User: Fold these one by one.
Assistant:
Number 1:
Amino acid sequence: MAYILVVEDDIELGQVLLRQLREKGHDVELVGDAEAAIARTNRYIYDLILTDLKLPGMDGIELLKRIKALNTTTIVIVMTGYASVDTAVIAMKTGAQDFIQKPFGFDDLIRKIDDALAIRRLKNEVDYLRHRQTDIIYRTSDIIGVSKELKHVLNMVTKVAGSDSTVLITGETGVGKGLIAGAIHHNSPRSENNFVQVNCAALPQNLLESELFGHEKGAFTGAVKVRIGRFEQANMGTIFLDEIGDMDLSLQAKVLRVLEDREFERLGGNRTIKVNVRVIAATNKDIVSLVKDGSFREDLYYRINVFNIHIPPIRVRKDDIGPLVHYFIKKYSIEFNKPVSDISPVALNIMMRYDWPGNVREIRNCIERAVLLAESDTITPAELSIVNANQVDDDIDQESSLSSLELKEKEMILDALEKSDWIQKDAAAMLGISKRVIHYKIKKYGITHPRWIKNR
């Protein structure tokens, strides 16, 4: 969909163009002369203007000059029944994107409009690609984890992806809110268009406004040219407002307007831009408390919280630690060209016992360092670096006090437990020992697992 202004003094032709362009899904307005077109472009920024060259009063070439002086990003296609090479050259030099001679077939015009809009989208895409995040998996089937909590989150993603509803994702820092937002977009009907991410906590609020809405030339010191904002880049796609709880109240009001009216003005500008954007927001804060203390607008909260997805922290879904660890081992062994392919059962058990306040991000950093330090194909406890983890320090101290025979025994028990999905009686059968003996050994070596009720 594009926002199009048709400038045509032949009312019958203008009405035909208006109707047919709307049938193609565009938002279209019709005016009959250049003065009315200038009045509209003083108020709104259009994606494309389709204008006749021969108009009453101001002609199409002069109108073209005025349009380009107002906004260099607007595409202009000129129509004329008085075509000549000279006329076409003048129009193109003045800033027209394309030229079509009357009478023309509607299919030919649509092809020219589609081509022009594709070029505009390509320019936005190039600017977007300079800032996009890479190395992110967005297919829900590839998101790492096996816990029932994560499966519930992915089920919610599947349900909401096909709609256009605004989504609020909540959860602690590092749980993967951006990954889930990306999964929603890339499994939605908007997946062929841009997924634009903005971290609302990473920029000062005055710069964040320019980042979101763009700015006009001269809007502030250093604004030497027009800049397209993230909402414009995300047109027909999705914008992800990460850490929206850190946004200033004044900026919240402008975001609310985009959600309600689908329009805004660039910083330093007074002309309205219309967009069709899906908004996904995320926060690691208690946003209900922010609403109560007046630091977050209640109306904006209700507008973004149409569909809520809460991502639990790793400490309550420890079944996901093992799969994540092995995924990151594979990733960083390839990245660092090191033959690391596994983690010892003792080291994995240490990781299972830690609460991971930094969540998935902390696990990733821990494994990245461990792969770098690893001196064999298997990560050991000595290569783990876990900050502020007294219970893990105790485990490592215990490892150093065990004899080599005891260490081997503990490794065998942990290996059997892993292979038997942490069911103790099955692990005992695998090792050829009784349940009473394996219970004793588990207690002796301090082996725990989050599914075991006594360890909760």
Number 2:
Amino acid sequence: MNAQILKGNGLALYPNPIAAKPQEQYGQDREEILHCAGFDAAAKEISGWPGYQETALRALPVLAKKLGIAALYYKDESTRFGLKSFKALGGAYAVFRLIQQAIAAQHPGHLATPKEILSGQYSDIVSKMTVTCATDGNHGRSVAWGAQLFGCHCVIYIHATVSEGRRAAIAFYGAEVIRVPGNYDDSVHHAAEQAAKNGWTVVSDTTYEGYRDIPIDVMHGYGVMSREMSEQLEHRAPTHVLVQAGVGALAASVCAAFWQEWGATRPSFVIIEPERADCFFQSGLVGKPVAVLGDLDTVMAGLACGEVSPVAWDILKHGINHYATLSDDHALEAMRVFANPNASDPKIVSGETGSTGLGLMLAAQGNTQIWNVLGLNADSRVLLIGSEGDTDPTIYKQVVGRSAEEVLA
């Protein structure tokens, strides 16, 4: 199997040998994980939250021409609920659902609305709840924001290499933030232990034994972004979607939503990971989830994950067309390209994780074999998921040379 790995210019590509054929339907097994009803419910609730606004899908025609493709689109999540990340859609939605369920347990038959919860009508129930999670930054910020918005307590665990800027951004929303030794996966296990000890509820985007429903709520929340993209594309499928992996929750959500909508005309699906945190790539090589150990050190902080989410794997093991790993240098280069566009293309503030799709395109452009295996050509219409803006403004300015405000001025 390993002979099929293509490498060059800071990029590795592995075509998935068990990828679903175009005619294969989404199917009942996957429908039991991520389903239209779940995406519909999340869209209905989240669109009614204070401050909800559709984020922009930015066209980059000049850059597309330079790359030699027909169209390049970038879903810009840097403005999502002021949190600068798509994660605002997931963790906060799962917090909301937990609160709904706690209210329903004491008021049978009643599903509280966001307006009712925000009014403080059920504060006697909500104020006694505590949610927690481990995070490398953006997910924890979403959980903390959701807890503050809806009125419950929040404790967030971060691992050793999470930046001070990201820690402060979580604390801004009133959460107690605790740093623990080790890597991201160590902090996940620590959060689970503390929740069990203290009677708190873990709000994670990764599943594990006996823990499934809440991450699925998170993933359904992410589906709001996919629904927006579909409408912004006027329901015309792109040829390629490039999505960053992490534990796989975002990638699985996008894959599921697009598979449900476009079926046999769905895009070719490429997932991207850092070279040192490539749990999906390694799992793809052996055909089952495997863990990647070590410090997982990468500038792509939101992707520093060593273990795949099992339910995400169940969607993606056949939904992925190509696994890819990318060097840190290309992610940083892409941030600078976004900030310094050619001609009339828009200026884009993209963080280290948000820039991975363009990083792959820039790396692949110099490798004819990889470019051709990906099926990229003059007719390709490529969609990039801009998962975050300058979620750490200090790091962003160090990389780009200017602040986000200066870039957009």
Number 3:
Amino acid sequence: MRDARGKVCLDLGCGTGDFLLQWVLQNPDARGIGVDMSAEALRQARETAERWSVTDRLEFHEAAVGPGPLAVPEAALDTVELVTSMYMLHEFGRNGREAIVDVVRALKAQLPGRHLLALEVEACDPEEFAAQTPPPAHFGRLDYRLIHQLSGQGLPRSQADWHGIFRDAGCSIVDPAS
């Protein structure tokens, strides 16, 4: 993303727009488009954009991400050069791995040629995690593991599984070091 000066970023599941706000504040030529299904979160995002005087560079759309096209105006999507998804794609895992593949495939079809930066919590083994020396500063990864198991989303996925999901959806993996 460092080389994305002036680019337009589409943030899927943007919530209150915190990432996009930082994106445009740190990149004066950049613009952002946020998509979320929470009207309340988007209201807060718009208020924050107004407070920071960046409403001319940020726009927000209430829409659900899923296996079909995003309900966002084509004119807005045509400007997108970079797509981000932070801790959101795993939510489709409650319907099985193939459901995540379908969502990624739909995004690829609607936004061909764009890079997707997806962040997710990596799976962890509770016994290995507990045996760390020194002990972990917090237990967020274990909390995540428990919450997702209880909510029917299954266990967090490994990096290898995520890479497989993206490949199954017809995407290629870009090594950030290259």
